[in-house]
Design a protein that fits this description.
Elements: H1 4-38, E1 56-58, E2 65-67, E3 75-80, E4 96-101, E5 107-113, E6 120-121, H2 129-136, E7 141-144, H3 149-156, E8 162-164, H4 165-168, E9 173-175, E10 185-188, H5 189-199, H6 215-219, E11 224-225, E12 228-232, E13 240-246, E14 251-256, E15 259-260, E16 271-272, E17 274-279, E18 282-284, E19 291-293, E20 299-305, E21 308-317, E22 320-325, E23 328-329, E24 337-342, E25 348-351
Parallel strand pairs: 3-7, 4-24, 7-8, 17-24
Antiparallel strand pairs: 1-2, 3-5, 4-5, 6-10, 9-10, 11-21, 12-13, 12-25, 13-14, 14-15, 14-16, 17-20, 18-19, 20-21, 21-22, 22-23
Protein name: DUF3048 domain-containing protein
Pfam families: DUF3048, DUF3048_C
Organism: Siminovitchia acidinfaciens
């Protein structure tokens, strides 16, 4: 039988044991708390960064794939082709180039840029009415330095958004020191964009696209051999344009006056995929020899693609020159296009 003293002893032991257990428990809680404070908290799971696949878009005037970008307006620049202006800057980056006679049997270029932006373009030359008309076909911002009386009236009337060197000589347009006037006016693409912004011109609408051949269609072209093409604007050899097809690169090169057409800054050649030559009636309009060119009536044409020539008819559709065969528009080989406007197709020859 357990005595009273034994019970007291037992109770005292239980009490001591309980106190000890509480101390141990408290110590464990403090230790666990300290450990949790010293631990580096786990970072939340990071979601993997999703790599975006570049979306491709087709440039409307070349049919060539480019990285997608906001649609941009075409820019058309009148470029000098006098021998003292060669080699020019920017021609290799133009999507479409028109070569047209001006007075004095000298040709000028209307270079249309949309898929590429050259750092510098020039020499820039004065406007003629037919350059304005062709630019309107692409709803382009028109760039020139100077104008004929007829072109001046059209520009002053607001017929087309334009930036002209007469108003911006020495600001947007710069005179280079390696050429003599009037062959020394240049403009940068940045200054074109600045001038457009200052004038409040909208520049975010791309031109209506041209029609292009598929690779299979381009590989099945038929016609006469035309690895070498000669386009004479007069008897002056200085303005005879020659095109040579490189079957390996599948591109045409161009030369005039016996010299290859290249970029002034880096000697990069102008490489072309489509050459179109159209016959249009030319008339002399004034005592200065300025010309009127009928770009409305349509007429005979040649189309040169992949070293092959096709006879065609041309039509003017909303300001654009299009070649047709049997009433169907000819599609272009994806790439760059050069359009020569001559008084007579008899001035054109071609062969192997």
């Amino acid at each position: 039988m357990v005595g009273r003293k034994n019970l007291i002893f037992l109770g005292d032991g239980i009490l001591r044991l309980t106190k000890l257990a509480c101390v141990v428990l408290a110590t464990l809680v403090l230790f666990a708390s300290a450990c949790s404070k010293n631990e580096t908290p786990e970072e939340p799971d990071k979601k993997p960064v999703k790599e975006e696949t570049p979306v491709k878009a087709t440039a409307p005037l070349t049919g060539v794939e480019t990285k997608i970008a906001p649609p941009e307006r075409a820019v058309a620049v009148t470029i000098n082709n006098h021998p003292d202006a060669r080699p020019q800057s920017g021609l290799s980056q133009a999507d479409v180039v028109y070569e047209v006679l001006a007075e004095g049997k000298v040709t000028r270029f209307l270079a249309i840029f949309q898929s590429e932006k050259p750092e510098s373009i020039g020499p820039v030359r004065s406007a003629r009415q037919y350059f304005i008309d062709l630019s309107q076909g692409y709803d382009a911002l028109f760039i020139a330095h100077g104008y004929s009386p007829e072109a001046k009236q059209a520009l002053k009337s607001g017929a087309i958004d334009n930036i002209n060197g007469i108003q911006h000589d020495g600001t947007l347009f710069k005179r280079v020191d390696f050429r003599q006037a009037p062959h020394n006016s240049y403009i940068t693409f940045k200054n074109i964009e600045k001038g457009a912004e200052d004038a409040g011109y909208e520049m975010d609408e791309a031109p209506k696209p041209l029609s292009f051949l598929t690779d299979e269609e381009a590989g099945n072209l038929s016609g006469d051999a035309a690895a070498n093409v000669k386009v004479a604007y007069s008897q002056d050899a200085t303005f005879i344009a020659e095109y040579h097809y490189d079957a390996e690169d599948e591109k045409y090169t161009r030369s005039s006056g016996g010299a290859e057409t290249v970029e002034y800054d880096n000697d990069k050649p102008v490489l072309l995929d489509n050459i179109i030559v159209i016959e249009a009636a030319h008339t002399t309009k004034d005592s200065e020899g300025r010309l009127g060119i009928n770009l409305d009536s349509g007429g005979k044409a040649y189309v040169f693609q992949k070293g092959i020539a096709q006879e065609a008819e041309w039509k003017n559709e909303d300001g654009r020159i299009f070649p047709y065969i049997n009433g169907e528009p000819i599609k272009l080989v994806p790439g760059k296009t050069w359009i020569n406007i001559v008084p007579e197709l008899t001035m054109v020859s071609f062969g192997e």
